[in-house]
Amino acid sequence: MSDESRPFRTAAVIPAAGRGVRLGPGAPKALRALNGTPMLVHAVRAMAASRSVSLVVVVAPPDGATEVKNLLAEHALPERTDFLVVPGGESRQESVKLGLDALPPGFDVVLVHDAARPLVPVDTVDAVIEAVRDGAPAVVPALPLADTVKQVEPRADGSPEPVVATPERSRLRAVQTPQGFDHATLVRAHESVTENVTDDASMIEQLGLPVVVVPGHEEAFKVTRPLDLVLAEAVLARRRANDGF
């Protein structure tokens, strides 16, 4: 089959090796229950909901791969999607790299998705994939900011911080996941970029390649603090009432 006629194949990598200390003591954040189901399972289902995604790689805590495998086996996942669990590293960047290394050959598009964003709608996932297929080396979903943002001079002693600038809000976006990439480009970034990494898209920027934005979704918020769990439960309750989700 020629390159022109070969279908694009998409895989998703979900780094889930962090402990999520801001949610308080207990299980790692990705394993916290949301409506009785671990957030990680919701996130995996969100990626598998896209018919374009044929493989989901979950990067587990270094000593928790077996636990995560058993967890996924206990919950219903789409049969048309394959799943793979690999142990992660000490940092998110290292974990994503280990997930990339585990991908079999033949994947053109790679999504990197936060396990702590369990409710991203499938339309957002598909929009990211489509933009990569259309030729963008890196794509991020993002939302305009609702609040005015101030740049400040940090004070380590806790004293009031002076404002040094007010960025133009119309030019700012709050970035979400999944972030989508040309597979070979993301691999190259992880092999060559090691500093000033805030997310995977920032690595592509450091290669001098363009990153484009597609519309994000308000339900793709990151579950970081206890109040976020309350909001996520409310979203799931609304989905059940409206869609039988």
Q: How many strand units?
A: 12
Can you tell me the number of structural domains? 1
Return the CATH topology. Answer: Spore Coat Polysaccharide Biosynthesis Protein SpsA, Chain A
Specify the CATH homologous superfamily. Spore Coat Polysaccharide Biosynthesis Protein SpsA, Chain A
- Would you state the CATH class? Alpha Beta
Fold and architecture overview:
The protein is of the alpha/beta class and 245 residues long. It has seven helices and twelve strands. The strands form three sheets. Strands 1, 4, 5, 6, 7, 10, 11 and 12 form an eight-stranded mixed β-sheet that branches. The protein has a two-stranded antiparallel ribbon with strand order 2-3. The protein has a two-stranded antiparallel ribbon with strand order 8-9. Helix 2 links the parallel strand 4 and strand 5. The longest helix is centred in the last third of the chain and has 18 residues. It is globular. The model has no long low-confidence stretch (mean pLDDT 91).
Summary keywords:
Spore Coat Polysaccharide Biosynthesis Protein SpsA, Chain A; single chain; eight-stranded mixed beta sheet; alpha/beta; globular; 245 residues
What's the structural blueprint in terms of helices and strands?
Layout: E1 10-15, E2 33-34, E3 37-38, H1 39-48, E4 53-60, H2 65-73, E5 82-87, H3 92-101, E6 109-112, H4 122-133, E7 138-144, E8 151-152, E9 163-165, E10 173-175, E11 179-182, H5 183-192, H6 200-206, E12 212-215, H7 226-243
Parallel strand pairs: 1-4, 1-6, 4-5, 7-12
Antiparallel strand pairs: 2-3, 6-11, 7-10, 7-11, 8-9
Helix pairs in contact: 5-6
